[in-house]
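INFO  loader      accepted 1 record
INFO  loader      residues=232
INFO  predictor   begin
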Amino acid sequence: MLPVVILPKLLQDYATLPYKTYGGNIALKESQILQTQSARNHKHILYFIGGFLDTYYKVLFHVFEICVNTHHICAIKLPTHTLKQNDFMDSDNVIYQDFCFMYSSFNCLRFLRDFIPNVIRDGYSVSVVAHSWGAKNILKLCLRYNFPLHTLITLDCVGYFTITHRPTRIHQWENIYITDFVGDYHRPNLAAIIGNGQQYIQHADSNIGIPPPAHHASVITMLKHSKILQIV
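INFO  predictor   done
INFO  writer      dumping tokens
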């Protein structure tokens, strides 16, 4: 099954493997609008990777949509020596960047393995916000191929796999997770219970646990607690 991928036209030549531009509850017209509005003249990509059935429930897709449609400013806190053209820094050493935004569904392993090296070779940097099974897939690729990611934010990662080490080419990695899947039951937590929620990941640079009533699908709540990414 092909992944759903929404990316601006200026990045399409870097994707050599087939993909769909819409599917589930993401309509063609909706995808086309987001594709047009997600383009920015900046060589830093902020890539949202949804979890299982995200194209139907639009959990992380909604965050991608907010960033693109409502012109929210996204900020990633970085060391000052990484300041580049078109970035500006506030008094708290937060660098605000003009990102190219893109989105894909969780089943994007082959697409990511092809696409990310292509854009990096052409001078782009890539930051990833990934939820659930999407977080599992980007982590598996980084563990195996050591992809150079500028920033990785994993949101309630799931999966029956072992995170054996910290990939050395991730500049900064923040893991945000739900602390209790069972005690305060919500239907979305079934994905974490059945899918083996990783929760605290010892190899991440930082871990932030979010207690109930937040649940597996509470990605906006999780991102509000991020120390790296700000959407304002």
